[in-house]
Amino acid sequence: EALFSQLEFGIPAVAVPLTRLGAGFGRADHLALVAAGLRSPDEIFALSPDSLAARLPPALCARLERLRPA
Question: Which CA distances in Å does 66 have to 5, 14, 23, 63?
Fold first, then answer.
Protein backbone atom coordinates (compact mmCIF):
# COMPACT_ATOMS: atom_id res chain seq x y z
CA GLU A 1 0.00 0.00 0.00
CA ALA A 2 2.83 2.42 0.82
CA LEU A 3 4.49 1.77 -2.52
CA PHE A 4 1.20 2.42 -4.31
CA SER A 5 0.87 5.76 -2.51
CA GLN A 6 4.44 6.66 -3.38
CA LEU A 7 3.77 5.98 -7.04
CA GLU A 8 0.33 7.59 -7.07
CA PHE A 9 1.48 10.84 -5.45
CA GLY A 10 5.11 10.83 -6.60
CA ILE A 11 6.36 11.20 -3.04
CA PRO A 12 9.10 9.58 -0.94
CA ALA A 13 8.22 6.85 1.56
CA VAL A 14 8.57 9.25 4.50
CA ALA A 15 5.65 11.31 3.13
CA VAL A 16 3.19 8.43 2.78
CA PRO A 17 1.50 9.03 6.18
CA LEU A 18 0.65 12.55 4.96
CA THR A 19 -1.66 11.08 2.34
CA ARG A 20 -4.13 10.53 5.22
CA LEU A 21 -4.85 14.27 5.00
CA GLY A 22 -7.17 13.35 2.14
CA ALA A 23 -8.09 14.87 -1.18
CA GLY A 24 -6.92 18.31 -2.06
CA PHE A 25 -3.30 17.79 -1.03
CA GLY A 26 -0.92 17.02 -3.84
CA ARG A 27 2.72 16.20 -4.34
CA ALA A 28 3.93 19.77 -3.78
CA ASP A 29 2.00 19.97 -0.50
CA HIS A 30 3.39 16.67 0.75
CA LEU A 31 6.94 17.69 -0.16
CA ALA A 32 6.53 21.08 1.55
CA LEU A 33 5.37 19.35 4.72
CA VAL A 34 8.31 16.92 4.64
CA ALA A 35 10.72 19.80 4.03
CA ALA A 36 9.27 21.48 7.13
CA GLY A 37 10.01 18.35 9.16
CA LEU A 38 6.40 17.19 9.35
CA ARG A 39 5.78 13.53 8.65
CA SER A 40 2.20 12.82 9.76
CA PRO A 41 -1.12 14.53 10.40
CA ASP A 42 -0.55 14.04 14.14
CA GLU A 43 2.73 15.99 13.94
CA ILE A 44 1.02 18.76 11.98
CA PHE A 45 -1.88 19.21 14.37
CA ALA A 46 0.37 19.01 17.44
CA LEU A 47 1.77 22.38 16.36
CA SER A 48 0.01 25.66 17.02
CA PRO A 49 -1.34 27.63 14.05
CA ASP A 50 1.47 30.15 14.58
CA SER A 51 4.12 27.43 14.44
CA LEU A 52 2.64 26.10 11.21
CA ALA A 53 2.56 29.60 9.74
CA ALA A 54 6.25 30.01 10.48
CA ARG A 55 7.07 26.80 8.56
CA LEU A 56 4.63 26.65 5.65
CA PRO A 57 3.14 28.80 2.89
CA PRO A 58 -0.04 30.67 3.93
CA ALA A 59 -2.35 28.87 1.50
CA LEU A 60 -1.23 25.46 2.75
CA CYS A 61 -1.64 26.58 6.37
CA ALA A 62 -5.18 27.73 5.68
CA ARG A 63 -6.13 24.39 4.14
CA LEU A 64 -4.59 22.50 7.05
CA GLU A 65 -6.37 24.65 9.62
CA ARG A 66 -9.72 23.71 8.08
CA LEU A 67 -8.88 20.08 8.92
CA ARG A 68 -7.65 20.72 12.46
CA PRO A 69 -9.56 18.56 14.94
CA ALA A 70 -11.69 20.53 17.38
Answer: 23, 24, 13, 5
Residue 1 pLDDT grade (very low, low, confident, very high; cuts 50, 70, 90): confident
The overall pTM is greater than 0.85: yes
The 3-state DSSP class for residue 12 equals coil
Residue type for 28, please?
A
- What letter does residue 63 receive in the DSSP assignment? H
Alpha helices in the chain (DSSP H): 2-9, 27-35, 41-46, 49-55, 58-67
Query: Strand, coil or helix: what is 16?
Result: helix
Say what the pLDDT of residue 23 is. 77
Nearest to 28 by CA among 40, 18, 43: 18
Q: Cα 46 from chain centroid?
A: 13
